[in-house]
Amino acid sequence: MINNKKIILVLSGGVARGFSHIGVLKVLEDYEIVPDVLIGTSMGALIGAAYASGMSMEFIEKYIKAFNFKDLLRLQISKSGVLSPAPITKVINEVVALGLEKRCKFISVSTNLLTGKPVMNIVPKATMFTKEDKKLIRASCSVPGVWPCVKGKEGEVLCDGGLTANIPVRQAKQYSPDIIIAVDVGYCVDKTPPKNAIDAVVKAIQMAGAEFNTYQTEKADIIIKPTLPNINQMDFNKVKYIIEKGELETKRQIPKLRKLING
Prior knowledge:
Layout: E1 7-11, H1 20-30, E2 37-41, H2 43-52, H3 57-66, H4 86-95, E3 105-112, E4 117-123, H5 131-141, E5 150-151, E6 157-160, H6 162-165, H7 169-173, E7 179-183, H8 197-216, E8 222-224, H9 239-262
Parallel strand pairs: 1-2, 1-7, 2-3, 7-8
Antiparallel strand pairs: 3-4, 3-6, 5-6
Helix pairs in contact: 1-9, 2-5, 4-5
Protein backbone atom coordinates (compact mmCIF):
# COMPACT_ATOMS: atom_id res chain seq x y z
CA MET A 1 0.00 0.00 0.00
CA ILE A 2 1.01 3.63 -0.55
CA ASN A 3 -0.11 6.00 2.22
CA ASN A 4 -2.41 3.19 3.41
CA LYS A 5 -4.21 3.29 0.05
CA LYS A 6 -4.93 -0.05 -1.62
CA ILE A 7 -4.34 0.40 -5.34
CA ILE A 8 -5.65 -1.95 -8.02
CA LEU A 9 -4.39 -1.61 -11.57
CA VAL A 10 -6.66 -2.91 -14.34
CA LEU A 11 -5.15 -3.61 -17.76
CA SER A 12 -7.51 -4.08 -20.71
CA GLY A 13 -7.36 -6.32 -23.71
CA GLY A 14 -6.54 -4.77 -27.07
CA VAL A 15 -4.09 -6.98 -29.00
CA ALA A 16 -1.27 -4.75 -30.39
CA ARG A 17 -2.77 -1.61 -28.84
CA GLY A 18 -2.18 -3.35 -25.52
CA PHE A 19 1.56 -2.72 -25.86
CA SER A 20 0.79 0.69 -24.39
CA HIS A 21 0.49 -1.13 -21.04
CA ILE A 22 4.29 -1.36 -21.08
CA GLY A 23 4.52 2.44 -21.24
CA VAL A 24 1.98 2.78 -18.42
CA LEU A 25 3.91 0.40 -16.17
CA LYS A 26 7.24 2.08 -16.93
CA VAL A 27 5.93 5.47 -15.81
CA LEU A 28 4.24 4.09 -12.68
CA GLU A 29 7.52 2.40 -11.77
CA ASP A 30 9.44 5.65 -12.34
CA TYR A 31 7.11 7.34 -9.83
CA GLU A 32 7.36 4.37 -7.41
CA ILE A 33 3.65 3.61 -7.71
CA VAL A 34 3.28 -0.15 -7.30
CA PRO A 35 -0.25 -1.61 -7.30
CA ASP A 36 -1.31 -4.03 -4.59
CA VAL A 37 -3.27 -6.02 -7.15
CA LEU A 38 -3.00 -6.17 -10.93
CA ILE A 39 -5.95 -7.53 -12.92
CA GLY A 40 -5.49 -8.14 -16.63
CA THR A 41 -7.48 -9.35 -19.60
CA SER A 42 -5.97 -10.76 -22.81
CA MET A 43 -2.90 -8.64 -23.72
CA GLY A 44 -3.34 -6.94 -20.34
CA ALA A 45 -3.04 -10.36 -18.71
CA LEU A 46 0.14 -11.19 -20.62
CA ILE A 47 1.91 -7.88 -19.94
CA GLY A 48 0.49 -7.72 -16.41
CA ALA A 49 1.69 -11.22 -15.52
CA ALA A 50 5.21 -10.43 -16.74
CA TYR A 51 5.25 -7.29 -14.58
CA ALA A 52 3.72 -8.95 -11.50
CA SER A 53 6.16 -11.86 -11.73
CA GLY A 54 9.08 -9.49 -11.11
CA MET A 55 10.47 -9.37 -14.64
CA SER A 56 12.19 -6.02 -15.30
CA MET A 57 10.39 -3.49 -17.47
CA GLU A 58 13.57 -3.19 -19.54
CA PHE A 59 13.43 -6.91 -20.35
CA ILE A 60 9.71 -6.86 -21.14
CA GLU A 61 10.08 -3.89 -23.49
CA LYS A 62 13.10 -5.34 -25.30
CA TYR A 63 11.42 -8.72 -25.66
CA ILE A 64 8.24 -7.29 -27.18
CA LYS A 65 10.15 -4.98 -29.53
CA ALA A 66 12.30 -7.84 -30.80
CA PHE A 67 9.56 -10.46 -31.13
CA ASN A 68 8.36 -11.44 -34.61
CA PHE A 69 4.60 -11.69 -34.21
CA LYS A 70 4.30 -13.68 -37.43
CA ASP A 71 5.71 -16.55 -35.35
CA LEU A 72 2.32 -16.76 -33.64
CA LEU A 73 0.64 -17.69 -36.91
CA ARG A 74 1.33 -21.41 -36.86
CA LEU A 75 -1.59 -23.21 -38.46
CA GLN A 76 -3.07 -26.10 -36.49
CA ILE A 77 -6.74 -26.86 -36.99
CA SER A 78 -8.62 -27.97 -33.86
CA LYS A 79 -12.23 -28.06 -32.69
CA SER A 80 -12.09 -24.49 -31.34
CA GLY A 81 -9.25 -22.77 -33.21
CA VAL A 82 -7.08 -22.62 -36.31
CA LEU A 83 -3.72 -21.64 -34.77
CA SER A 84 -1.36 -23.67 -32.61
CA PRO A 85 -1.21 -22.61 -28.94
CA ALA A 86 2.49 -23.56 -28.77
CA PRO A 87 3.95 -20.16 -29.86
CA ILE A 88 1.86 -18.07 -27.42
CA THR A 89 2.63 -20.61 -24.67
CA LYS A 90 6.34 -20.13 -25.40
CA VAL A 91 5.97 -16.35 -25.12
CA ILE A 92 4.21 -16.66 -21.75
CA ASN A 93 6.92 -19.00 -20.45
CA GLU A 94 9.63 -16.58 -21.53
CA VAL A 95 8.18 -13.35 -20.14
CA VAL A 96 6.61 -14.57 -16.89
CA ALA A 97 9.48 -14.96 -14.43
CA LEU A 98 9.99 -17.76 -11.93
CA GLY A 99 12.16 -17.27 -8.86
CA LEU A 100 12.14 -13.48 -8.83
CA GLU A 101 10.51 -11.41 -6.10
CA LYS A 102 6.97 -10.71 -7.26
CA ARG A 103 5.70 -7.14 -7.32
CA CYS A 104 2.04 -7.75 -6.51
CA LYS A 105 -0.93 -10.10 -6.52
CA PHE A 106 -2.00 -10.96 -10.05
CA ILE A 107 -5.41 -11.92 -11.45
CA SER A 108 -6.08 -13.01 -15.02
CA VAL A 109 -9.59 -12.87 -16.46
CA SER A 110 -10.94 -15.28 -19.05
CA THR A 111 -14.45 -16.15 -20.27
CA ASN A 112 -16.24 -19.44 -19.67
CA LEU A 113 -17.99 -20.27 -22.93
CA LEU A 114 -20.34 -22.65 -21.09
CA THR A 115 -21.83 -19.90 -18.92
CA GLY A 116 -20.88 -16.62 -20.61
CA LYS A 117 -19.35 -15.45 -17.32
CA PRO A 118 -15.86 -14.12 -16.57
CA VAL A 119 -13.51 -16.43 -14.64
CA MET A 120 -10.73 -15.04 -12.45
CA ASN A 121 -7.52 -16.87 -11.63
CA ILE A 122 -5.69 -15.45 -8.61
CA VAL A 123 -1.93 -15.71 -8.07
CA PRO A 124 -1.07 -14.32 -4.58
CA LYS A 125 2.01 -12.14 -4.24
CA ALA A 126 3.78 -14.76 -2.13
CA THR A 127 3.15 -17.51 -4.70
CA MET A 128 5.12 -18.27 -7.86
CA PHE A 129 3.31 -18.71 -11.18
CA THR A 130 2.52 -22.36 -11.85
CA LYS A 131 2.03 -24.19 -15.14
CA GLU A 132 -1.73 -23.98 -14.52
CA ASP A 133 -1.54 -20.21 -13.93
CA LYS A 134 0.30 -19.77 -17.22
CA LYS A 135 -2.28 -21.91 -19.01
CA LEU A 136 -5.01 -19.58 -17.73
CA ILE A 137 -3.07 -16.55 -18.98
CA ARG A 138 -3.17 -18.20 -22.38
CA ALA A 139 -6.91 -18.72 -21.95
CA SER A 140 -7.33 -14.99 -21.33
CA CYS A 141 -5.56 -14.30 -24.65
CA SER A 142 -7.30 -17.00 -26.70
CA VAL A 143 -9.67 -15.42 -29.19
CA PRO A 144 -12.29 -18.12 -29.89
CA GLY A 145 -11.99 -19.55 -33.35
CA VAL A 146 -8.37 -18.38 -33.58
CA TRP A 147 -6.60 -20.17 -30.72
CA PRO A 148 -8.13 -23.25 -29.10
CA CYS A 149 -10.05 -22.83 -25.87
CA VAL A 150 -8.49 -23.96 -22.60
CA LYS A 151 -10.01 -26.47 -20.20
CA GLY A 152 -10.32 -24.93 -16.72
CA LYS A 153 -9.74 -26.46 -13.30
CA GLU A 154 -13.42 -27.36 -12.98
CA GLY A 155 -14.14 -28.32 -16.57
CA GLU A 156 -14.80 -24.80 -17.83
CA VAL A 157 -14.23 -24.01 -21.50
CA LEU A 158 -12.13 -20.85 -21.27
CA CYS A 159 -11.25 -18.24 -23.87
CA ASP A 160 -10.59 -14.52 -24.32
CA GLY A 161 -11.58 -12.51 -21.22
CA GLY A 162 -12.39 -9.57 -23.48
CA LEU A 163 -15.71 -11.17 -24.38
CA THR A 164 -17.13 -10.46 -20.91
CA ALA A 165 -14.65 -8.23 -19.05
CA ASN A 166 -12.32 -6.43 -21.42
CA ILE A 167 -11.61 -3.88 -18.69
CA PRO A 168 -12.37 -5.80 -15.46
CA VAL A 169 -13.11 -2.86 -13.18
CA ARG A 170 -16.22 -4.51 -11.77
CA GLN A 171 -14.11 -7.52 -10.82
CA ALA A 172 -11.56 -5.19 -9.19
CA LYS A 173 -14.27 -3.69 -6.97
CA GLN A 174 -14.62 -7.07 -5.24
CA TYR A 175 -11.25 -6.53 -3.56
CA SER A 176 -12.24 -3.31 -1.73
CA PRO A 177 -9.68 -0.96 -3.30
CA ASP A 178 -9.17 2.65 -2.34
CA ILE A 179 -8.05 3.52 -5.85
CA ILE A 180 -8.74 1.77 -9.16
CA ILE A 181 -6.54 2.71 -12.10
CA ALA A 182 -8.04 1.42 -15.35
CA VAL A 183 -6.05 1.36 -18.58
CA ASP A 184 -8.32 1.42 -21.63
CA VAL A 185 -6.30 0.97 -24.81
CA GLY A 186 -9.50 1.28 -26.82
CA TYR A 187 -10.37 0.38 -30.39
CA CYS A 188 -9.42 1.92 -33.69
CA VAL A 189 -12.91 2.95 -34.75
CA ASP A 190 -12.70 3.86 -38.42
CA LYS A 191 -15.57 6.24 -39.23
CA THR A 192 -15.18 6.11 -42.98
CA PRO A 193 -17.82 4.24 -45.04
CA PRO A 194 -17.23 0.45 -45.12
CA LYS A 195 -15.46 -0.81 -48.23
CA ASN A 196 -17.12 -4.24 -48.21
CA ALA A 197 -19.15 -6.64 -46.05
CA ILE A 198 -16.17 -7.78 -43.96
CA ASP A 199 -15.13 -4.18 -43.34
CA ALA A 200 -18.68 -3.41 -42.18
CA VAL A 201 -18.57 -6.29 -39.68
CA VAL A 202 -15.17 -5.17 -38.34
CA LYS A 203 -16.41 -1.59 -37.90
CA ALA A 204 -19.51 -2.83 -36.04
CA ILE A 205 -17.38 -4.92 -33.67
CA GLN A 206 -15.03 -2.00 -33.02
CA MET A 207 -17.89 0.39 -32.27
CA ALA A 208 -19.57 -2.09 -29.93
CA GLY A 209 -16.24 -2.76 -28.20
CA ALA A 210 -15.54 0.94 -27.69
CA GLU A 211 -18.97 1.45 -26.13
CA PHE A 212 -18.48 -1.64 -23.93
CA ASN A 213 -15.14 -0.27 -22.71
CA THR A 214 -16.75 3.05 -21.76
CA TYR A 215 -19.38 1.23 -19.70
CA GLN A 216 -16.78 -0.96 -17.97
CA THR A 217 -14.56 1.94 -16.85
CA GLU A 218 -17.35 3.94 -15.19
CA LYS A 219 -16.35 2.91 -11.64
CA ALA A 220 -12.62 3.55 -12.06
CA ASP A 221 -10.96 6.44 -10.18
CA ILE A 222 -8.33 7.04 -12.85
CA ILE A 223 -8.76 6.13 -16.51
CA ILE A 224 -5.61 6.04 -18.58
CA LYS A 225 -6.61 6.02 -22.23
CA PRO A 226 -3.63 6.39 -24.58
CA THR A 227 -4.29 8.35 -27.75
CA LEU A 228 -3.67 5.88 -30.56
CA PRO A 229 -5.07 7.39 -33.78
CA ASN A 230 -5.07 5.05 -36.76
CA ILE A 231 -3.51 2.19 -34.75
CA ASN A 232 -5.54 -0.95 -35.18
CA GLN A 233 -5.43 -4.14 -33.16
CA MET A 234 -3.07 -5.82 -35.65
CA ASP A 235 -0.40 -3.10 -35.87
CA PHE A 236 2.36 -5.26 -34.37
CA ASN A 237 5.01 -3.32 -36.31
CA LYS A 238 4.36 -0.12 -34.32
CA VAL A 239 5.40 -1.33 -30.87
CA LYS A 240 7.71 1.60 -30.07
CA TYR A 241 5.07 4.21 -30.93
CA ILE A 242 2.35 2.40 -28.97
CA ILE A 243 4.54 2.10 -25.86
CA GLU A 244 5.44 5.80 -26.06
CA LYS A 245 1.76 6.75 -26.21
CA GLY A 246 1.16 4.74 -23.03
CA GLU A 247 3.98 6.61 -21.31
CA LEU A 248 2.71 10.01 -22.46
CA GLU A 249 -0.86 9.53 -21.22
CA THR A 250 0.28 8.08 -17.88
CA LYS A 251 2.56 11.06 -17.24
CA ARG A 252 -0.42 13.30 -17.91
CA GLN A 253 -2.44 11.47 -15.27
CA ILE A 254 0.29 11.38 -12.58
CA PRO A 255 -0.73 14.67 -10.84
CA LYS A 256 -4.33 13.43 -10.46
CA LEU A 257 -3.13 10.04 -9.23
CA ARG A 258 -0.76 11.58 -6.71
CA LYS A 259 -3.58 13.74 -5.40
CA LEU A 260 -5.72 10.64 -4.83
CA ILE A 261 -2.85 8.78 -3.12
CA ASN A 262 -2.03 11.71 -0.84
CA GLY A 263 -5.64 12.72 -0.17
